[in-house]
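Practice problem. Given the sequence and the SMILES for NAP, write out the predicted structure.
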Amino acid sequence: MTTAVLITGTSSGIGQATVQRLSRDPQLTVFATARRLSSIADLADTGARLLELDVTDEDSMRNAVLSIEAEQGSVGVLINNAGYGEYGSIEEVDLDKVRREFETNVFGLARLTQLVLPAMRAAGQGRIVNVGSMGGRLTFPMGGYYHASKYAVEAISDALRYEVAPFGIKVSLIEPGIIRTGFSDVAASSLSTSGTPQGPYSALSRAVDKQLAGAYRSGLIAVGPDAVARAIERAVTAAHPRPRTVVTPAGKSLVHLRRLLGTRAWDALLRQQYRAAPVTGSRPSLDHPQ
Ligand SMILES: NC(=O)c1ccc[n+]([C@@H]2O[C@H](COP(=O)([O-])OP(=O)(O)OC[C@H]3O[C@@H](n4cnc5c(N)ncnc54)[C@H](OP(=O)(O)O)[C@@H]3O)[C@@H](O)[C@H]2O)c1
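Answer key:
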C-alpha cells in the first residue's frame, strides 16, 4: 500500500518541483492539484495523479479530499503549498484583495487541514507540511499583508503540531527564503498596482520593487524551487521530520539577523536599505479623513 500525498498549487514553482521530486518515490502516490487542470497536464508524465483543487472553494476542497479517501482510505500527507503575495502599503492595499490572499494562504490551508484530519486520525498516522516563509519570521515594508498571512501559518502550524501529535500525525513547517518561481512576478504586479503613481508611498514602492527584483536575480540570494522540494521531501520521508526548516543560506542568515538585531536596529537596517526612498506625497495627519 502506498501513501497518498495531496499537494496544492502545483501549476508552477515549488509545488511543481515537489511533484517532480516526490513522484520518483515508489512508496508514494502523488496527487498533484491546481485550480485549472490544464495548467498541470504536463505533470501526468511524472506518474502523478491530477485533481482540480481551488483552496478558496469549499466544494472543490471537499471533492478532492473525498475522492482520495474513497480510493486510498486517507490522505497520508497533505502539503499546503498554494499561496501568493499581495504587496503594497498597509494604508493603500484594497482590503478585499487582502481578504482574498488570506482565503488562499491561511483559510485554504486551515480548511484543507480540517478536511483531511478525521481520516488521518482514524488511520493513526499522517503528515502535514505547511509552506510558510522566512517572511513568517521577519517583515519587510510593503509586504505587511503577505507577512501577516505567513505569521498566521506559523501560529497555526505550532498549535497543530502539538494538538495532533498524540494521533501519530507529524507537522512540519517549511520556511523558504528567496526562491525563483512565479511568486516574484505576482508580488511585483500587485505592488505596482497597489497605490497611485504620485502617492505617499510611491518612492518606497519603487525602492522595494527594485530590491525585490535584485534579490530574485542574485545568484547569492535566490535559488531554484528544487531546494524547497528537497526540504519538503525530508519532511515527508524522514523518520523524525524537523518541525521547522528555513530554506536557503541567505534565508537562514536573515532570520538569525532579525532575531539578533531587535526591533529598532532592524528598522535602522531597513532605513539604510531603502534610504533612496524619500517621502513623496503629503504626510497624513492623525485626523486624515478615510
Ligand atoms: N518564491 C518565493 O520566494 C517564496 C518564498 C517564501 C514562501 N513562498 C511560498 O511558497 C508557496 C509556493 O509559491 P511559489 O514560490 O512556488 O510561487 P508560484 O510559482 O507563483 O506558485 C504558486 C502556486 O499557488 C497556486 N495558487 C494560487 N492561488 C490558488 C488557489 N486559490 N487554489 C489553488 N492554488 C492556488 C498557483 O496556481 P495558479 O497557477 O492557478 O495561480 C501556483 O501553482 C507559496 O505559499 C508562497 O507563499 C515562496
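Check your answer against the key. Confidence is low (pLDDT under 50) at residues 283-290.
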